[in-house]
Specification:
By secondary structure, the protein is α+β, with helices and mostly antiparallel strands. The protein folds into 2 domains: about 45 residues, no CATH class; about 190 residues, paralog of FGE (formylglycine-generating enzyme). About 30% of the residues lie in helices and about 15% in strands. The protein has 6 helices and 9 strands, in the order H-H-H-E-E-E-H-H-E-H-E-E-E-E-E. The strands form 2 sheets. A 5-stranded antiparallel beta sheet has the order 1-2-3-9-4. The radius of gyration is 27 Å and the shape is globular. It starts with a helix and ends with a strand.
Length: about 250
Amino acid sequence: MKATLAAGLLVASVCWPAVAQYGAAAKPAGATDSTGLTNATTAASAVSTNKPDIKALIKGDSFTNGAGMVMVKISPALWAGRFDVTQEEYQKIEGSNPSQFPGDRNPVDSVSWNDAGDFCAKLTERERKNEMLPDGFVYSLPTQAQWELLSAGAELKDAVTSMGTRRSGTAPVGSLGANSLGLYDTRGNVWQWCLDPQDKPFHVLRGGAWDSFIEVNVRPEFRWFSNGADDRKNVYGFRCVLVSESGK
């Protein structure tokens, strides 16, 4: 009898701390609380409450989209990526990374005009599905006129080029200074594709790249004509803009 009583006391002393630590047993799925809401309903409400509201986000000077890209407000109808599209972002949307110079925060390189356009289309579709796309807006490549606006005030000292010191590849985005709009690498690192349909069949890139060492090639007005929409080189990359479809 004594042995049985001792065993019972031992079991009680072992089990009690566990009850004190973890509390009451969890309610079964579908159980209701004092408000009459099920566990599933309460959890769903918490998730929806934590979801970013794009209408609130675009009231600020910048916001981070669902792909992790920081978009900077240039005008009510135009937002621009603070950085060139990175390899991490490209991988997230396209599921692949064609870059010759690996690095999550390096700009994606070796992409064609068609590749860049496909990225913008998929990003638009994804953000719309996730309710992270402002009404009436789409992601796109900048036109040359928009690129010139975005690169205003960018100085050569803040451009990743081979002027002075030869480089062997790209550098992480934002390695040097920003321009007056708070945008990085609008000049240098990778040539940036522009949208302009009138440039067919060549398609134009602007801004210079990591291997640019001739002064004329890094001038803001210089244009690099590609060999077509499927041309890929390890100096080609792009920046996304978010534009109003109506242009207003």
